[in-house]
Amino acid sequence: MFRYTHALVCRVPVAFRTRAEIDLEEARRQHEALCRLLRELGVDVVELPPDELHPECVFVEDTAVICNGVALITRPGAPHRQGEVDTVRAVLKKELGLPIVEISDEAAKLDGGDVLFTGREFFVGLSEWTNEAGARALAASFPEFSVTPIKVSEPRHLKALVSMAAPDVLCVSKGAASQEVLRRIEREASFSYQTLTVPEDSAANVLSVNGTLIHRSAAEAPETCKVEHRFILNFPIRKLSRMLNLFF
């Protein structure tokens, strides 16, 4: 199992509270808790300053896909977010020294939240924010891996419906949308995967970091937190409240 060495996150801007459901101070506490936990897991956390011109800058994962030491700069599907990539590109290139790949096709749309890497292959969600041209750009950037487009019917990113709970273990919810995506992945996958099914839809989005599973707290996913997952994962589980800015 590979280990993560760095995480790129962005501090929460004041402008983020324009999203009606957001409690700004709570979001900042959650951000700090996530950074603290990542450091405990041996990850070097690089924090970007808040970008008041781009309230959604906290969702850093949408701006780049990194694999095998190469960083693909995405083309976010929401036009108002495309300016976010400039800061991320500069940090990845100058501070982390990563080779940068750009998407030349202006018709391409690609959000990192739609890119699921299993360690063996890529699945790309075709959603409101990612299209076939974006999937082709990903495939061209990482030719050593198969890249399979997966239709996402609901207005959600692929990784909101299915994520990696552990090596070769997919985390999905019992919800219809998550199960539909799982069936599509199972039909198209080049490898076999186990499945961890959780009760709440929101709980399908987890992080597996250096031998620890990070998922939502009991406040957000009470039924999921009652389920004992260790029999399938065989490593520690840590609970966080709502995860805002996940990017590796």
Automatic annotation (TrEMBL):
| Tagged with keyword Mitochondrion | no
- Look up the signal peptide feature and give its range: none
Where is coiled-coil annotated?
A: 17-44
GO MF terms listed in the record are: amino acid binding; dimethylargininase activity
Task: Establish whether keyword Mitochondrion is in the entry.
Answer: no
Please cite one Gene Ontology biological process associated with this protein: positive regulation of nitric oxide biosynthetic process
Which Pfam family name is an example for this entry?
DDAH_eukar
> Which keywords annotate this record?
Coiled coil, Hydrolase
Report the family membership: Belongs to the DDAH family.
What's this protein's name? Dimethylargininase
Q: Which organism is it from?
A: Cloeon dipterum
Upper classification of the organism: Eukaryota, Metazoa, Ecdysozoa, Arthropoda, Hexapoda
